[in-house]
UniProtKB/TrEMBL annotation:
Pfam families: Abhydrolase_3
Domain Alpha/beta hydrolase fold-3, first and last residues per copy: 30-157
Lineage: Eukaryota, Fungi, Dikarya, Basidiomycota, Agaricomycotina
The name this protein goes by in its record: Alpha/beta hydrolase fold-3 domain-containing protein
Keywords: Hydrolase
GO molecular function terms attached to this record: hydrolase activity
The species this protein was found in: Trichosporon asahii var. asahii (strain CBS 8904)
Length: 284
């Protein structure tokens, strides 16, 4: 698949990969952000249903990196995801793809922390607090078992340091990805064990963690979501209740007896999500 650097900050290149469907027609764009608590991971960890989306569902599939915490705090990550969406709408990406993409139809997705980023992009929550202008929202959002509020007890109640110590230093070299065999991949478990997600992602950036909480933002009536599909996740229920109360178009797909990251298993083809995407595209 082709790779592109969509942004660069302080010498750190931030990339994306894209996959085009066969044929010559213009296709909608599905942008996906990886999970990992915003601490680890890479765009290369796209599950099979995402890799199959171009051929099976006729979508331009884009998987994107962003700079990782704690070397980059939340405002910097917000800057990255906004830059990614802007790039997908740019003449540069149109040229890169040979005019094959319909840039008016971008849907943003992600799993876990990536689902949180998708919801932030869709709603505009957190951008003003980060000193940024909120981008024009995407056509829709697909949030897969998303984080929605790191002030919740799950993230603030403690659950071995040596393996991840070098990655906990906020002054260490910034990075936008890590390989799957890196010790950094232990950071998520360590973060849960020590309940330090806020310290790592927010730190001393001067913005309260609550500024990035999705449901309170919607309840405030300051923020809205475009049509949104959410699957799994108990925190997501708060977002769905808030969206229902605001009269927003949110579909909540509750699956029982499955684990976090369940769609990593190739047997889960996420057909409900892709059906929802095409219903939305047909209305647009």
């Amino acid at each position: 698949m082709p790779s592109v650097v969509y942004a660069e900050h302080d010498g750190v290149e931030i990339g994306l990969d894209y996959y085009l469907p066969p044929g010559n027609g213009k296709c909608p764009i599905l942008l996906w952000f990886h999970g990992g608590g915003l601490l680890m991971g890479s765009r290369k960890a796209a599950w099979s249903h995402l890799r199959n989306a171009p051929d099976k569902h006729g979508l331009c599939m884009v998987t994107a990196d962003y700079r990782l915490a704690p070397q980059t705090r939340m405002p910097g990550i917000m800057r990255d995801i906004s830059a990614c969406l802007a790039y997908l709408r740019s003449s540069a990406f149109a040229s890169e793809t040979g005019g094959r993409v319909d840039q008016s139809r971008v849907i943003v997705s992600g799993g876990s922390a990536g689902g949180w980023l998708a919801l932030l992009l869709g709603s505009g929550v957190g951008f003003e607090a980060s000193g940024l202008e909120a981008p024009e929202p995407p056509l829709g959002v697909c949030a897969i078992y998303p984080i929605t509020d790191i002030t919740a007890p799950f993230w603030t109640t403690p659950q071995h340091r040596a393996a991840v110590a070098e990655y906990l230093d906020p002054n260490a070299q910034e990075t936008s990805w890590c390989p799957p065999d890196s010790p950094r991949m232990q950071m998520y478990s360590y973060m849960l064990q020590e309940a330090i997600e806020q310290d790592l992602v927010i730190g001393d950036c001067g913005v309260p963690a609550s500024a990035y909480s999705i449901a309170p933002g919607i309840v405030s009536s300051k923020f809205k979501l475009p049509p949104t599909y959410i699957v799994h996740g108990t925190q997501s229920e708060d977002v769905v209740r808030a969206a229902d109360g605001a009269g927003l178009d949110v579909t909540f797909d509750v699956l029982t007896g499955i684990d976090h990251l369940y769609d990593k298993d190739p047997k889960y083809e996420m057909d409900n999500m892709y059906r929802w995407i095409w219903k939305l595209l047909q209305r647009a």
